[in-house]
Design brief:
By secondary structure, this protein is mainly α. The chain folds into two domains: about 55 residues, no CATH class; about 200 residues, MetI-like fold (Orthogonal Bundle), CATH 1.10.3720.10. About 75% of the residues lie in helices and about 0% in strands. It is built from twelve helices and no strands. The longest helix is centred in the C-terminal third of the chain and has 35 residues. The radius of gyration is 24 Å and the shape is globular. Its main location: membrane.
């Protein structure tokens, strides 16, 4: 009886509501009929599992340990690009996020202009912006940092604005009632409430930027990306396995760091 009750919906008959079932069927039907537009062939997909397994088998090789010093240097360059681009984006996107929040912006026109600006920044992927900056400043990590920072401002500004828009209005009214000014209300009433979301957003962006930075090497924008692409083109699986493992370890460490920071901030706020 306990197992059956778990699957019962909070409806009089215990079944899913009809509008939900109809909407789900409509979505699944639309996906089925439009699968040909994106060339989704389920038979071919199932038949290609063997090829995918054969490709994965190439990674069962002895790693090229002599490549480790070069891998360390390239990964360090990628991490530096990621951290620097994210730090620049935080400084720029925090005031833009305040101006892009409905409950914090000084005027609706400012809100709309900043929102459109953030949309423009994230409209194109990092790889396209990297091509633009490579043509402007040349090859190297600098165009990669510029591309990552620009796109990150677009995403982070939007995330910051949405975090500010959902803060509790009672502390805001309390600070305002004590005679606080426009900037003081935002600094001491809104931003502290949104701080846990800010930290989570920053750590997520770090994770994203690290993975994005590995691809920017494809267009000469620095980092481990160039070695990754060349290892795939030259079938150097002994190097490719080390590159993939290094990226995985760094991303995992960032994830653990994010959990600890959020936990400390949340528990500290409750205390």
């Amino acid at each position: 009886m306990t197992t059956i009750s778990i699957w019962r919906w909070p409806t009089p008959n215990g079944l899913p509501p009809l509008p939900l079932v109809a909407a789900l069927c409509a979505v699944l039907g639309a996906m089925w009929f439009t699968a040909s537009l994106v060339e989704v062939d389920w038979v071919h997909l199932v038949g290609s599992l063997g090829k995918m397994a054969a490709f994965a088998g190439h990674f069962l090789v002895r790693p090229d340990w002599e490549y480790l010093p070069q891998l360390f240097d390239k990964m360090l360059e990628t991490i530096e690009m990621t951290v620097l681009a994210t730090a620049i984006a935080i400084v720029v996107s925090l005031p833009l996020g305040v101006l892009a929040a409905r409950n914090a912006t000084p005027h609706i026109v400012v809100y709309r202009v900043v929102r459109d600006l953030l949309s423009l920044m994230r409209a194109l992927p990092e790889l396209v912006w990297a091509l633009v900056f490579v043509s402007a400043v040349g090859l190297g990590p600098l165009p990669g940092v510029m591309a990552l920072a620009l796109v990150t401002v677009g995403f982070m500004g939007k995330f910051f604005a949405e975090a500010i828009e959902v803060v509790d209005h009672k502390p805001v009214e309390g600070v305002r009632a004590h005679g606080a000014g426009w900037l003081q209300v935002r600094l001491f009433a809104m931003l502290p409430q949104a701080l846990p979301d800010f930290v989570g957003t920053v750590m997520y962006i770090l994770d994203h930027n690290l993975r994005a930075a590995t691809i920017l090497g494809l267009v000469g924008a620095g980092g481990i990306g160039y070695d990754l692409v060349m290892a795939m083109r030259l079938f150097q699986y002994d190097r490719l396995i080390l590159i993939a493992l290094a990226i995985y370890l760094v991303v995992t460490l960032l994830d653990r760091l994010s959990d600890q920071l959020r936990s400390r901030i949340i528990h500290g706020a409750r205390a």
